[in-house]
Specification:
about 450 residues; UDP-n-acetylglucosamine1-carboxyvinyl-transferase, Chain; five-stranded mixed sheet; four-stranded mixed sheet; 13 helices; binds shikimate-3-phosphate; binds phosphoenolpyruvate
Length: about 450
């Protein structure tokens, strides 16, 4: 452990250079995407706080979900992988425990959901819970979350840093009550508090006061997953939530495919031509990726949902767009790539908070596009993109899975693009390089491939 308390227990993210394949013609493929990161990690947390065991069907298996599973196991929760029918590996059975175990260390890796959702749970344990993260994630905002957790009675020793790593000194319960938070930096502060709130002694009355509230669909997702387990969150006004203390029900749940991870595949059809279908596209979803049908249509594609699949078909060209993406910051890297191939300049705004994601995504996207000869400018809360002819070069992933998949999109139409580290996609989609190759080969869904054959391919 270093003098500041940081112990780098996460495996270093290795450099895995990858020559992005060029599309040699229109794509026609069906791509089955793995389970939603956001739903998997919420359901893991809620199942751990529940009054009975739960089973998660078709969950995500990636670095972010592995970090969550490890964190909850470290707190004493029983988590087993059991054979399931999902295309991407086992189901998960969760057996809750109460009180949670302390005197342990949790490595959040790069996962925002782990650092923001698990910090409060440490308060339910008897003993110290040390939260660390991968070196590349120590910059991620935690200050307002630490303040709010202290306000509801969680004892945190952060050495005055207002950031990871820190120690939660668990006393077996958390008081709860009224608290105001500025969640401008991340909606996950709100979600983390709401998820833990039913187990607070007196529940929670949370008010957001700040310049903006990003990623509102993700907060709606939190409220919906709580409701499904019998916890009804009142919303008296925008930016205000009341959670009663009470039981969280054990439930079997099916995890939706990750619609944000579907984004680069759907966008590929618009850049290379042709059409890409994603099966299992929900009719209703709180995932921000649900906005893709509208956004991609605005940019010139045809979107059809039939038989549970969404099909995106390229139009005559890609249209430039002026878009507020505050609700769907996760989609920015993909929409940025589309905008670079559009027929007119685009502006993406309302996204200042994505400077605090895996990397400063506004700065990284602008720098990498310029590296390929393109034109883009950083705005205070967004990006302006001016389409230009591009040339090959190294696309740096900046430790960021969505930067890596964006490099792959550029490579479809620009020969000689090399992504410096495709391994970063392991954060939410370890199968990405194989899935991309199969899409380009025009293959259908991976169907019932076993986890072993996915890994071997
Ligand atoms: O709650 C969640 O599952 C998430 C919320 C969003 O975070 P921010 O509000 O920090 O953007 C999103 O970007 C992240 O990928 C997942
Ligand atoms: C911002 C993201 O991740 P996290 O859940 O770590 O915040 C993301 O996946 O785009």
């Amino acid at each position: 452990m270093r003098a500041d308390g940081y112990s780098p227990t996460s495996a270093p993210i290795g450099r895995e250079p990858w020559r992005a394949p060029v599309a040699d013609g229109p794509i026609h493929a069906t791509v089955t995407v793995p389970g939603s990161k956001s739903l998997t990690n919420r359901e893991l947390v809620l199942a751990s706080l529940a009054d009975a065991p739960s089973r998660l069907a078709a969950p995500l298996h990636s670095d972010d979900s592995a970090r969550m599973i490890d964190a909850l196991r470290a707190l004493g929760v029983g988590i087993e992988l059991v054979p399931g029918s999902g295309a991407y590996g086992d189901d998960i059975e969760v057996t809750p425990v109460w009180p949670l175990r302390g005197d342990t260390e949790v490595d959040c890796g790069q996962a925002g959901t782990v650092m923001r959702f698990v910090a409060g749970l440490g308060g339910f344990s008897h003993g110290d819970v040390t939260l660390t993260a991968h070196e590349s994630a120590l910059h991620r905002p935690m200050g307002a979350m630490i303040t709010a957790l202290r306000d509801v009675g969680v004892d945190i020793d952060d050495g005055g840093r207002w950031a990871l790593p820190f120690i939660v000194r668990g006393h077996g319960h958390v008081r709860g009550g009224e608290v105001t938070i500025d969640a401008s930096a991340s909606s996950q502060f709100v979600s983390g508090l709401l998820l833990a709130a039913p187990r607070f002694d007196v529940g929670l009355h949370l008010v957001h006061e700040g310049a903006r509230l990003p990623s509102i669909p993700h907060i709606d997702m939190t409220v919906e997953t709580l409701a499904h387990r019998g916890v009804h969150v009142e919303r008296p006004a925008a930016g205000e939530w009341i959670v009663p203390a009470g039981p969280v029900r054990g439930k079997d749940v099916a995890i939706e495919p990750d619609l944000s991870n579907a984004a680069p595949f759907l966008a590929a059809a618009m850049i290379a031509g042709g059409s890409v279908s994603v099966p299992g596209w929900p009719a209703h979803s709180t995932q921000p990726g649900a906005m893709l049908t509208e956004i991609l249509t605005l940019m010139g594609a045809r979107a059809v949902r039939r038989g549970g699949s969404l099909t995106i078909t390229a139009g005559a060209g890609i249209q430039g767009i002026d878009l507020d993406l505050s609700a769907a910051g996760e989609l920015v890297p993909t929409i940025f790539a589309l905008a670079a191939f559009a027929d007119a300049p685009s502006t993406l705004h309302g996204i200042g908070h994505i400077r605090g994601h895996e990397t400063d995504r506004i700065a990284a996207l602008v720098a990498e596009l310029r590296g390929l000869g393109g034109e883009a400018d950083e705005l205070a809360d967004g990006i302006r993109i001016v389409p230009r002819p591009l040339h090959g070069g190294t696309w740096h992933a900046h430790h960021d899975h969505r930067m890596a998949t964006t490099g792959a999109l550029f490579g479809l139409a620009v020969p000689g693009v090399e992504v410096d580290d495709i391994g970063t996609t392991a954060k939410t989609m370890p199968e990405f390089p194989q899935m991309w190759q199969r899409m380009l080969a025009g293959e259908g869904a991976p169907g019932a491939m076993s986890e072993e054959s996915m890994r071997a391919s």
